[in-house]
Structures are given as structure tokens and as C-alpha cells.
Specification:
Radius of gyration of chain B: 22 Å
Shape of chain A: elongated
Distance between the termini of chain A: 13 Å
Order of helices and strands of chain B: HHHHHHHHHHHHHHHHHHHHH
Strand order of the largest sheet of chain A: 1-2
Oligomer: heterodimer
Helix content of chain A: over 70%
Largest sheet of chain A: 2 strands, antiparallel
Shape of chain B: globular
Number of strands of chain A: 2
Structural class of chain A: mainly alpha
Radius of gyration of chain A: 20 Å
Distance between the termini of chain B: 42 Å
């Protein structure tokens, strides 16, 4: 069971990375083609502006998801820096739980929005309807919610039963307290 | 009110800003009896804002540049050409930092990539240790006023959502930032010349040979700033096109010509840069929602009404604005933009501040926050990078902070500096 979970999370991360890298590459190429087309033929490709903008949305949310993986979102970390370790851990649990709950709420309502758009089925890019591209919003926020839920569980576990050692090298001060490794690790703990 | 306070507390306790802003937007919808799925509609506007294409492309290019030998070549070529001037090397350091920050956006990156080259070079040519340390630390916060700096783009995007900022373009911001940015570099450079005189720094003699070698080594990178800056300032390229050109050019030069970033490493560089982009985009997306909530709830008007009842003249307002922004800059860094613009821009406009000028004041002041103890980001990056106690870095930075403060006041109270080129 844990092996399956480990495998799943590995596959998940690999997919996420591949999508991120693939989409950024497409963006670079497409943006280049666009300029070429404008200069050579005097007009840009009609669909590529639209596609580029959609790619920003996708790359942005996938990047945000990747940032969640490292618990590397933009925060004000003044107060946590000054707190003693115990208080810090308690606050961390609160912050993780809050982030997970808010992201889940956004995901839920974004899903409602996408379902509604599905009802209209307006084609946006060629024959492809808009809702296809919008699914990344509930999907991205949903996965971020899931990650922070796992962090909440791992951090709570650590407070109650002692820390879960990270895999590989030890943590330094400049790294987030939770490594991505904790994800797989937390589950293999009894 | 209680919910707002709770959210502020959560933000101060280190909750991701996107979650705090999203929660405030959702709460605002709930209060205004708007369907909560509106947050997705607002977030989707990320895909309807053409200029945003520039963000991933510039960030990616910046990361590739940082990973390559370009910082080293940049320093060498500028040293070869300016090293013989009194204060020349210090000028080089400042100009290189500003250029690098303008292109890479994140100012911590400049200290890490360029500081490591410039700090020893400065010391070696006889500048006092403390001066050199202060210079590379302060230099890391320059450049945010020049095209194509991300903070300017972000300000433009958020300000354009407001009635007060409509009609303003990002190109105007880039043009407006050029002179104030140059003034900051020149003022710090002037200080360097003075230190140079006092410390008796030895001058590097100009060598045609070294100049030629450095130029050849840097031949591929030299056209880049000219193409990009020239393209943007002349209006030939839209910002997003300039970003595309930069990304492709940098990719070809560093990966295929210099081969300093190996193809195998590229996916990792891409991923790292997109983590930063993701952090920015998700905050921007939810901030678009919360901005609209605030506008619908009439909060900017209330802030305007309250401020105008308390502060009667423009000078006092600007002074308080500076103080407030410095405090924000210390805590929030440059992303504070998306949070404070919806509240402050309408107020500033009521006091007759031009939205473009406001953007320049905003960035000049926030970038000062990067250097201020106890929490300025640059202090910690420099302390970490150069292995010096934070207090020593702070002391080294003091004269630079003073000069930047003066230049910021100058930029604030002399609007023509920012506006004369655009009106």
C-alpha cells in the first residue's frame, strides 16, 4: 500500500515536472514563431496569442503547485523566525491547515465554475471549448490543497511523535522545514 | 473586521500570501453575497492579460543567464572599459548589478551571481572591505526601475485594474523609470569616486588588448541589452515580444554557443524558474479577485475619504507614503505591490500624484526596504553569501542606505524626473 502511494507520488511529480518543462518549451518556441511570422509575413498567427496566454495560466498554476511541493510559497517569515521551535511547529500546523482549507475552497468553487462553462461549451481555441483550459484552476488548487493537507498531517505527527527524518542530506537553515521527501516518508512511518 | 484581523495575523505568522489573499477575496464575496465561484472567473483573467506572457519568459532567461558564465563576462568587459576611471570599477559594479537585476527581476539573485565576482574584485583593487561589501549588497537592489524589470510590469498590471490607473501603459512606466534609476546609479557612483579618492585606490591602466579580449569573449551577450532595451524604449517590441526574444537569444547563446548550461540541466533550470513564476502568478491571480472585491466594497473610496480628512497637504502625504512603503518593503519585499496598489493608488491620485510617478515612487521606496534592518532581504542574502554577520553587512550598507534614501526623496518630490519624458 505504502509502496503504491510512493510510486503514485513519484509518478505524479514526474508528470508535473514534464508538463512544466514541456509547456515552457512550447511557450518559448511559440513566442519566437510569432515574432518571426509577424516580421516575415506581416501578421502573427491568429491562435498563438490565445494559446500563449493560456499557457501562462497553466505554467503559473503548475509552477505554484511545484512551489507547494517544496513549501516554497511567498510568505512573510519574520515572526516565525523569531519564535522558539515548539511554538514555531504549532504555528506551522495552523498555517498548513489554513492553506489547505483555503485552496480546497477555491478548488471547489472553481470546479463549479468549470462545470457551468462546460454547459455553455463555447469554443475558445479552434474547436476546443474554454472549459478544457479552465480545468487547471480547480485541478491546480485541488492538488495544492492536497499537498498542504499532507503537510498538516506530517507536521502534526512530528509534533506528537517526534520529527520524521528527511531523506538524504540534513536540512539547512535556509531550507523550508518540510522537504518534499516528507510526503512519501510520512506515509511509511507506522 | 475580525476576519480581516485574523487574516493579517495569519499572514504575519507565515501563511502563504496567496492563501491569505484568496481567503480575503472569498470572504469579501461572501459578505457581498456574490457567488464564490467568481474567484475562478477573476483568476482566469491571468489568461486574458497579454503582457503576462513576459513573466515566465524573462524569468526563465534570467535563470539561464545566472547559471551561465555571463555574469563573469559582464564584469570583465565593463572592467576593461571603465576600470581606468576613478571609481570606475565601483561604477561598473553598480551598473552591472542594475542591468542584471533589471533582467533577472529577483534582487537576491544579483548578489549571489554578481556579488561573488565583484566583491573580491573591488577589494583587490584597493577599495575598503566595508565599502565593497556595502556596494555589492546595495547594488543588488538597484535596477528595479529599468526595463524590463518584473516589478514595474506587475505594478502596471495591477494599476490598470483600477479606474485611477486606466490608460497608463507599461511602456510609459519603463520610460519613466529610466531617469530616476540612472540618478540612483550616479549618486552611488559619486560616492564611490569620493571613497576612491580618499582610499587611494590604484587605477587599472587601460589595455587595448584586455579590452579586445573581453569584448570578444562577451560578443554574444553584448547585443542583448541593446536589442531588448532599444526594442522596448523605441516601441518596436511589445514587452512580451522583448521577453520572447530574450528567452530565445539567451537559450541559444548560453546553451548552444557557450555550452555553459548543459541541455541536460535545462529542465531543472526551467523548473526552478517556474517555481518562482508560479509563486508570482498565483498571488497575482487571487489579488485580481481581491482587488475587485475591494473596489466593489468601496474600500478605496473609504481609504481616500479617511486619508484626506487626516492629511491636508500633498507633502505630508508623500512623506507618510514613503514611510509606509519603507515599512512594507521591509516585510513584504517587492510583491507588496499587488497588495498596496489597490489601496494607495486612488489616494495618491487624489493628492495629484500621477499614476506613473506613483509607480516609480512605489518601487524606489520598496527597493530601499530590501536593505533596511532588521529584515531587509538583501542583508540576509549578502550575509549568507559572503559569510559575514548580518550586523556587519548592515553597517557596511549604512552610507548606501543614506544615499538611496536621499535619491528616493528626490524621486518622490520631484515628479518631473519621472514624468518629463512621457508628457
Amino acid at each position: 500500500m505504502t509502496k503504491l502511494a510512493d510510486k503514485l507520488s513519484r509518478v505524479g511529480r514526474a508528470t508535473e515536472d514534464a508538463l512544466l518543462v514541456g509547456m515552457l518549451s512550447v511557450m518559448v518556441l511559440l513566442a519566437g514563431l510569432q515574432i518571426l511570422a509577424r516580421n516575415l509575413f506581416g501578421e502573427g498567427l491568429i491562435w498563438s496569442d490565445q494559446l500563449l496566454r493560456i499557457l501562462v495560466l497553466w505554467v503559473g498554476l503548475l509552477g505554484a503547485l511545484a512551489a507547494s511541493r517544496d513549501n516554497n510559497h511567498i510568505v512573510i517569515d519574520l515572526v516565525p523566525k523569531l519564535l522558539p521551535p515548539r511554538a514555531k511547529r504549532g504555528i506551522e500546523i495552523l498555517v498548513f491547515a489554513f492553506t489547505s482549507a483555503v485552496s480546497a475552497l477555491v478548488a471547489w468553487h472553481a470546479a463549479r465554475f468549470v462545470i457551468e462553462e462546460y454547459g455553455y461549451s463555447q469554443p475558445l481555441l479552434g474547436p476546443v471549448p474554454g472549459w478544457v483550459f479552465q480545468t487547471i484552476i480547480p485541478l491546480g488548487f485541488g492538488l495544492i490543497a492536497w499537498r498542504y493537507a499532507v503537510y498538516t498531517v506530517v507536521a502534526t505527527h512530528a509534533t506528537l511523535f517526534g520529527p520524521i527524518p528527511p531523506q538524504g542530506r540534513p536540512l539547512t537553515d535556509h531550507e523550508p522545514t518540510l522537504r518534499a521527501d516528507a510526503l512519501g516518508d510520512g506515509k511509511s512511518e507506522p | 473586521m475580525i476576519v480581516t484581523l485574523l487574516l493579517i495575523v495569519l499572514a504575519l505568522l507565515g501563511a502563504p500570501l496567496f492563501a491569505v489573499i484568496a481567503a480575503s477575496a472569498l470572504w469579501g464575496y461572501h459578505q457581498g453575497e456574490v457567488d464564490l465561484s467568481a474567484i475562478a472567473i477573476e483568476f482566469y483573467r491571468i489568461a486574458e492579460t497579454p503582457v503576462l506572457v513576459a513573466i515566465p519568459l524573462f524569468t526563465f532567461a534570467g535563470y539561464v543567464l545566472s547559471e551561465s558564465g555571463a555574469p563573469h563576462r559582464l564584469v570583465r568587459v565593463s572592467q576593461a572599459f571603465l576600470g581606468w576611471l576613478p571609481g570606475g570599477l565601483a561604477f561598473v559594479a553598480l551598473a552591472a548589478c542594475a542591468l542584471f537585476t533589471a533582467f533577472t527581476g529577483a534582487s537576491g539573485a544579483t548578489i549571489v551571481a554578481l556579488g561573488a565576482l565583484l566583491y573580491p574584485a573591488l577589494k583587490e583593487s584597493g577599495y575598503p572591505d566595508r565599502f565593497s561589501l556595502g556596494l555589492v549588497t546595495a547594488g543588488g537592489s538597484l535596477g528595479m526601475l529599468f526595463a524590463p524589470a518584473l516589478p514595474l510590469i506587475l505594478y502596471g498590471i495591477v494599476a490598470q485594474q483600477m479606474p485611477a490607473g486606466r490608460g497608463m501603459t507599461i511602456d510609459e512606466l519603463f520610460i519613466a523609470g529610466a531617469v530616476p534609476g540612472a540618478i540612483q546609479v550616479l549618486m552611488l557612483g559619486g560616492f564611490a569616486v569620493w571613497v576612491h579618492r580618499k582610499a587611494g585606490v590604484k587605477l587599472q591602466s587601460f589595455s587595448w588588448r584586455e579590452a579586445k579580449l573581453a569584448l570578444i569573449e562577451c560578443a554574444w551577450e553584448i547585443p542583448l541589452p541593446f536589442v531588448v532595451l532599444g526594442g522596448i524604449y523605441s516601441g518596436y517590441f511589445a514587452v512580451s515580444e522583448a521577453a520572447a526574444v530574450t528567452a530565445i537569444y539567451v537559450l541559444i547563446v548560453e546553451v548552444f554557443i557557450h555550452r555553459e548550461v548543459r541541455l541536460k540541466e535545462l529542465p531543472n533550470v526551467m523548473r526552478q524558474s517556474m517555481v518562482l513564476v508560479g509563486g508570482i502568478v498565483i498571488i497575482l491571480g487571487v489579488a485580481l479577485a481581491s482587488t475587485n472585491v475591494m473596489i466593489d466594497a468601496g474600500i478605496p473610496e473609504r481609504v481616500v475619504a479617511w486619508t484626506t480628512s487626516q492629511i491636508h497637504d500633498r507633502t505630508t502625504f508623500l512623506l507618510l507614503l514613503n514611510l509606509f512603503l519603507i515599512a512594507m518593503g521591509m516585510m513584504l519585499e517587492i510583491l507588496a505591490i499587488v497588495l498596496v496598489v489597490p489601496l494607495l493608488l486612488p489616494v495618491a491620485v487624489t493628492y495629484g500624484v500621477h499614476p506613473v510617478h506613483f509607480g516609480i515612487i512605489l518601487l524606489a521606496t520598496l527597493q530601499l526596504g530590501y536593505l533596511l534592518p532588521p529584515v531587509g532581504l538583501n542583508l540576509f542574502v549578502a550575509s549568507y553569501r559572503f559569510n559575514k554577520p548580518v550586523l556587519e553587512v548592515v553597517r557596511a550598507c549604512l552610507p548606501f542606505i543614506g544615499i538611496l534614501l536621499i535619491s528616493t526623496l528626490l524621486i518622490t518630490y520631484w515628479p518631473a524626473l519621472s514624468l518629463f519624458l512621457i508628457t
